[in-house]
Write the structure tokens for this entry.
Amino acid sequence: MSKYTRVRGTQDFLPERAELLHFINESAVSFFENYGYRLIITPTFENSELFKRSVGESTDIIQKEMYEFKDKGGRDLALRPEGTASVVRAYIENNLGELPKPVKLIYVSQMFRYERPQAGRYREFWQIGAEAIGSPDPALDAEVIELCLNFLNSLAVKDLKLIINSMGCRNCRPGYIKVLKKFLSEKEALFCKTCSQRIEQNPLRVFDCKQKECQKVLSEAPKISDYICEEDKEHFEKVKIYLKTLNVEFVIDPHLVRGFDYYTRTAFEITLSSLGSQDAIAGGGRYDYLIKDYGGPDEPAIGFAFGTERIMLAFENQNITVFTEPEPDVFVAWVEEAQKSDALRISAMLREKHLRVSMAFDSRKLKSQLKLADKLNANTALIVGEEEIKSGKYTFKDLESAKQEKLTIEEVVNKFKDNK
Ligand code: HAM
């Protein structure tokens, strides 16, 4: 065993999982294209300040989970813990607001959070995220939520539960915060240390606590939905009506407040109980002030992100297999070292004709090469010996029936034509 092991909370994606991840990412990009989304790639690290400002100083992500470091130039940087802040920064910096609204962007990238690793929770993980910027229309909320759910449906992920809530806006939230603060202060002794600090700093963030005792007290806390203004109520009503139009089933959770400070109005999560304690497969919501707060135009927006590994776990739990090891169409074997270069050349020729080809390396007897072909589940073998090279006709062996015939390279290619 080498002394080098992967860092806690990170993962090696071995071929089967790597291919599945790649498949899900690619499927998302083309699925989202049908809704008008285009791919955006932003840097893995940004100025720490960007995340502190948007996600919120008193959130778990900023207080406990961000990978922060100084570069050799003394800059305060952070590995991105989430994608929304980066997309919004890029949107403003590159004047994407000039495009027709809403501007719809999808990203497929790794995120980094220093959380306690467990099944479905990693320190480096993948997200598929979508951001639709430049419209306050509740119909857009419904379209975004339906996209989120519909993509999971397209992958045949079952037993999903959609939870929605309205988190109010800057006009009505302060009123709610006042009432919440009063409630929390009265019960302060019952909360953990982090929660009691947050009661003063940012009472909404007390809801993010995962401790059972705190959650118990919170179940009786005043509900944000009882304090939202008329405009927000109307917005939320319309979202619900549009979701019904789209036949999207949902449950309202009046305590859903999501762990970021930038959210306003509609917030939602999709959960899958078979995932266990990390059951959120996707989460998102509106963030109507973030672009303006960053110094951009006054443009409301909404988005969400999937945890891609959690989609993969859902596949595993449902026994959905997408990939098996690809078998070579042809295994090219050589009789003596002298024909190795011809075998190399012929392999290249066959690949040019879009065949999947493997050949043997190192010093091996023909018999051991054919054993290797078997292990690789190759369908056929092409044997390259001195005779074959002279005549231009090669021994082509069907490895299942053991039948063999002499064929030119062109005839070998033609054999596969109908199946390709
Ligand atoms: P989030 O709820 O923090 O939202 O993350 C979205 C999803 O990422 C979660 O539902 C979960 O599936 C996955 N996830 C989060 N943390 C981990 C982890 N440590 N390991 C594995 N998967 C994880 C956001 O990040 C927002 N930026 C979403 C958004 C976009 N809101 C508006 N636009």
